[in-house]
Amino acid sequence: MSNSNGWGLTARLITKHFGALGDRVSEAIANFDPETATEADRDRLADTLRATAQKLAAARSSFEKEHADVVKLQELIANDEKAAETLGERLASGRISEATINLFCDELESNKARLPLEIQEQADAEEYMNELQKIVDALSQQLADFDAAAKKALQALAQANAQRDLQQVRSERQEQLNGLKGLQGNSSALNALTRRAQAVSNEAAGMKIVADIGQRPHDQAAELDAIRKSVSNPGAAGGESALARLQRLSGKTATA
């Protein structure tokens, strides 16, 4: 923390009462940064908080005892002062000895002389307790800040992971779409198949042309043969009757 000078008295008080704990608390408060602290840093701070809280509990008990001693001594002095008003009458009447009066006065004077010291001890205990309370509050706030920063960091990490996953899904979908587009018009495999089909078709057409050329002499010869047959055998042209055809085939001629 920036106000490290403000903890000077606290560090001295803690060092006086509890030794090395003062340096540990001062260092923990001064160097802890919730934004960059690790979980180990938090654990150390939490341990310091627990130790300081225990000292605070002891300081409260000490203050309560010092306060009770002051109150008790103040009541004793007040009662003795009231009693002193009547002791003179008892001394004059002989109901109490002078030695007893002197002993009473010695105790009253001693208690009055001791009261400022008791009050100062009470004030020191109260100051120490209050300073420890400030330290406990500061450590508690540091822990709260760390937990808030950690929660914020975890939320940011979760959001970043979600965004990364979303972009990954979008990238995969884009790759799938690109693949489908390739199948529609840019597929090398389909283009190769198309070219192969055209080549086979062209090859078949060429073979048909060659076959037609080779078949043409046969067709012409058959046509000539049919012409010769029709000239040498006119009846075979299809104009004779069934009876004439039978007579022709049997070698008989028709009678008039």
UniProtKB/TrEMBL annotation:
Record keywords: Coiled coil
Superkingdom as given in the UniProt entry: Bacteria
Segments forming a coiled coil: 122-163
Protein known as: PspA/IM30 family protein
Organism: Pseudoduganella aquatica
